[in-house]
Amino acid sequence: MKFTKMHGIGNDYVYMDCTKERLENPGEIARLVSDRHKGIGSDGLILIQSSEEADFEMAMYNADGSYGKMCGNGIRCVAKYVYDNGLTDQTEISVISGGAVKYLKLTVEDGKVQKVRVNMGEPILKPDEIPVVGEGDKLVAAPIVVDNQVYEMTCVSMGNPHAVVFMNGVDDLKIEEIGPKFERHERFPDRVNTEFVERMDHKNLKMRVWERGSGETMACGTGACATAVAAILNGYAEREVTVHLLGGDLEICWDETDNCVYMTGPAATAFTGEFDPEELRKSVQGR
Ligand SMILES: N[C@@H](CCC[C@H](N)C(=O)O)C(=O)O
């Protein structure tokens, strides 16, 4: 099986071209390739498929094999992949993921994709649509008790669920302890991605993320969008912000005119290769 390892500011996935043939067992393959010691090593698996509703379909799986309906860093890499591999010569493309079509614009200079701007659509704020257990039409700075401590969370879905927590000292946060407790908290029936965010000023936010199904990652595109929306709802930021993540920066704009969130950032190819699923299974599982 041929693959390409790509990343969006350090949020790395194994990408496979499934436009001609669908993969039978994506969840299992995601778990195998993601293993950082015995597999290829990644935050998950992304399949590029053909679609009748859009130019391409993206199917993303977390490192634990669970399906994620949307991936902001992944969708930029999908755009670079289809352009670099000649699956399209267009610089404006549409990609469907989790049933929602997203529109992407590639900036290409000297034949090289420099950055990708994605219309990530309108943020979803209604608790039952995120889903999160809570009263009212949205949860902004709503209290939640995790590990006997009260946090204030703002909940946003960008096609996948996010809880954004503003705090000081994110660099020192023991995210591997608190992250899983948010992820599996009883108020999130589908689990949750959690962003821990420090406000630098009204245009800059520093964010660390604990991703559902993958743990701490270097970056999360949907998480950066959710963070910008949450910061604006809390009165902490302007409509255009830079979100600083462990792996780099993303430019996010929540547009007042169409209510859509726009994300701009890079996409990079690390290497290509091939694997034999049987060999990989033996390597990772020892059988
Ligand atoms: N890293 C991604 C989000 C991937 C999916 C997420 N872990 C989920 O299960 O919702 C991004 O860049 O948005």
TrEMBL record:
Its main location: cytoplasm. The keyword Cytoplasm applies. Keywords: Amino-acid biosynthesis, Cytoplasm, Isomerase, Lysine biosynthesis. The keyword Coiled coil does not apply. GO terms for biological process: lysine biosynthetic process via diaminopimelate. It catalyses: (2S,6S)-2,6-diaminopimelate = meso-2,6-diaminopimelate. It is an enzyme of class 5 (isomerase). SUPFAM superfamilies: Diaminopimelate epimerase-like. InterPro entries: DAP_epimerase_AS, DAP_epimerase_DapF. Its EC number is 5.1.1.7. The active site is at C71 (proton donor), C71, C220 (proton acceptor). Gene3D superfamilies: Diaminopimelate Epimerase, Chain A, domain 1 (3.10.310.10). One of its GO terms (molecular function) is diaminopimelate epimerase activity. The record marks H162, E211 as: Could be important to modulate the pK values of the two catalytic cysteine residues. Substrate binds at N11, N62, G72, N73, N160, N193, E211, R212, G221, T222. Signal peptide: none annotated. It is found in: Cytoplasm. Transmembrane segments: none annotated. HAMAP family: DAP_epimerase (MF_00197). Belongs to the diaminopimelate epimerase family. Catalyzes the stereoinversion of LL-2,6-diaminopimelate (L,L-DAP) to meso-diaminopimelate (meso-DAP), a precursor of L-lysine and an essential component of the bacterial peptidoglycan. Homodimer. This is Diaminopimelate epimerase. It comes from Anaerosacchariphilus hominis. The gene is dapF.
